[in-house]
Write a structure and sequence with these properties.
278 residues, 12% strand, 9 helices, 37% helix, seven-stranded mixed β-sheet, alpha/beta, globular
């Protein structure tokens, strides 16, 4: 135990930090008993649903969040974000090698499924990792500069491979490169397994949008999409405002339901679902 004592103390410190942050998020959102009740009909003015979005936005240093039990998985949440941002003839560049298995069919890398990104003429490109499984930053910079992709896609977790999970510092390095050589690219992060593992959130170091799974670290089932924070302090406000006007980032919100209807619809029918989320 002496050999790992320092690391265990670090983990405990991160755990306590995020626990306090979560309590603060509940307080800021004004979570109360009535929020745990089910809603009916179209779910207009569902206070519990809206509070849950605010809780996630605060916890992950986001401007906004979309948390729904009817996202059946993290892959579903990722797919909503991808289709909300990308349009025909756009290029999606994965800078962390081949994405993990479950998202490949949605992209169109494997299989021939109607409705995939490939089916909509959205191109997929990839930068291979180094032989030791680390990010090839030199090649990443070359590929982003050359291809000027609509999206720079980062997978934080190893998935089913043997590489190490990316730290926030490595994510920041990729973001810094992308912003320097292709400032119009949207930086998207697959943050599955990346929740509550540190004090620094990816949205504060340059990521524009990230999606994750409620099945992993947060517990429960479903998924969520998170948008960037206004208070990142990295000078990206104008850039994000421009994207918002172009519906590049916020396009993923109505994509989860129906364009023209926003995200104010969608009640949670069962009290147990509500309790599991909050």
């Amino acid at each position: 135990m002496k050999l790992c004592a320092d690391k265990l103390r670090e983990v405990e410190e991160i755990q306590e930090y995020n626990q306090i942050k979560m309590i603060k998020a509940f307080q800021n959102a004004g979570v109360r008993e009535s929020y745990f009740c089910a809603s009916t009909g179209y779910g207009y003015d569902d206070c519990g649903r809206d509070a849950l979005d605010r809780v996630y936005a605060y916890v992950f240093d986001a401007e906004d969040a979309l948390v729904r039990h009817n996202f059946v998985s993290g892959t579903h949440a990722l797919t909503v974000a991808l289709f909300g941002i990308l349009r025909p003839n756009d290029t999606m560049l994965s800078v962390t090698g081949m994405p993990y298995d479950t998202i490949r069919s949605a992209i169109g890398i494997e299989g021939s499924y109607p409705g995939s990104l490939k089916d909509f003429d959205i191109r997929f490109e990839m930068t291979e990792l180094c032989e030791d499984g680390t990010v090839d930053y030199e090649q990443v910079e070359k590929d982003i500069a050359e291809k000027q992709p609509k999206m720079v896609y980062i997978q934080r977790s190893r998935g089913y491979s043997l590489r190490a999970t990316l730290t926030w510092r490595e994510i920041k390095k990729i973001c810094d490169i992308a912003k320097r050589v292709s400032p119009k690219s949207v930086i998207m992060l697959d943050n599955c397994y990346g929740e509550f593992i540190d004090k620094v959130e990816p949205l504060t170091v340059g990521v524009d949008i990230m999606a994750g799974s409620l099945i992993k670290n947060p517990g429960g089932s479903g998924g969520d999409v998170r948008l960037p924070s206004h208070h990142t302090g990295n000078g990206q406000g104008d850039r994000r405002d421009a994207r918002r006007e172009q519906r590049n980032v916020h396009g993923c919100l109505p994509r989860a339901a129906c364009y023209g209807r926003g995200v104010e619809n969608g009640g949670i029918r069962f009290r147990t679902f509500r309790a599991a989320r909050l």
